[in-house]
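name: query_chain
kind: protein
chains: 1
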Amino acid sequence: MDCILIDTETLPTLETLGRPDVFEFSNQNRNDDVLVTGLGLVTPLGCSARETWEAVMNGQRAGRSLTCVEIDHFDHLSAMPGLALHGAAMDYAAVSMRLERSKLLETVPSKLSGPWRSEPMVAMSLVAFAEAMSHAGLRCRDLKPERTAIVFGSSKGGLRSTERMVEALATRHTRKPQMATVGTDDDAEERMSQPVIQIHDESEDLWNWGVQPDSAMRAITALTGSTVASSCPIAACATGLIALLQGAAMIHRGECDVCIVGSADAGLRASVLASFHRLRVTSRHWDAATACRPFDKSRDGFVVGEGAGVAVLESRAHASSRRARSIAKILAGGWLNDPTGMTQVDESGAVVSEILKRTVTFNGRRPDVLSLHGTGTESNDLAEARGIQMAFGANMPQCFGIKGAIGHLLGAAGSVEAVLTLLALQHQQIPGTTNLTCVDERCRIPLQPDARKMPQMQLAAKLSLGFGGHVACGLFERG
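structure:
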């Protein structure tokens, strides 16, 4: 039997939440405003922001049953009691085609471009980065390295590169040893060191440019030549939103004029599915398309997906100097710690309420729309719903969650969903909460199953939660 221990006697207090990082990005000097000027997406519903947005608004769903050619250890996973082999899988042929079409790698040495192409986490990041730069009307050569920063994270490194490297090492270590030969001590020392040298030669590129969590960040840094700062936040499923807020803070402090922010995750692997299955957070529903049902009475978990989200942030002064169009202005944001547990969240809603109060509701503000984390697990959905009720009372904003449509993209969830929130502001429409048929009576928040127009929408907020106690929220104003 799988067991998760939860201390129900101890609820979080303001003293145990940890020091919050909360930023207010608006002041009297409008040149310090932080603007979003470019967006890029790669998701199971499309290899661009436009394709993903149209698919979400048309009610498409990415969840489907995986086949033996799409997931490793298929037979072993199939034998696990109760595990549903579902996923929101990427079209990697399309990713590869988009990457080649972008021409980003034309002048990149093969020592770098090879690992970048072969590791899905990096390849998706570069496709989303290329789109965001094009959307912003920027080219890499237009950027001033000394005034450009990169804040791009992931919840983990490149799992496929990791597996390839481990397999290469295992193969070498399982080879039959050669018969010892007589020689000098120097000869023996050289023979002993040779396999290590060969392993290093075979795996160095994978280790540097595919395995490590900052692989995508360093690829984007190499392409832009950024010298201000290159940061790789790792905050589980809140990574992407925290990356965006950290980048906005750097611009607001005057440390850079342009910041490329976002996150990526390629975690649709057997190891991840098996681990989340044992935690009982993935859906066991028979139909993959409707398996993830956030805030629904019949929900039982999420479906794992993959993707990447990128935004180009600029100071208003820099954007105005080149007459760039603003999609939105970042007004405020922050994050704090939930001490409930490594894989639990505070179901009372106290932590969610606190982050909303500190970033969204003060000074009489109230967003028109709130984009939720909405995993479709009971603990997450109750934490968000109760926290929203506590923070807003009867005057709650319209809410939506999109994981029923695109799956849970793990380390990419925060950035992808933030981009979709910004697109909602731009298009004056909000997606529906896909697969919502009967709202859990304990989740009394404004939710709609279908997309709808909101022509007067001016403010939108994004809420993200993650394992390890990460809770973040950002507030955006239409550009």
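note: The mean pLDDT is 89.
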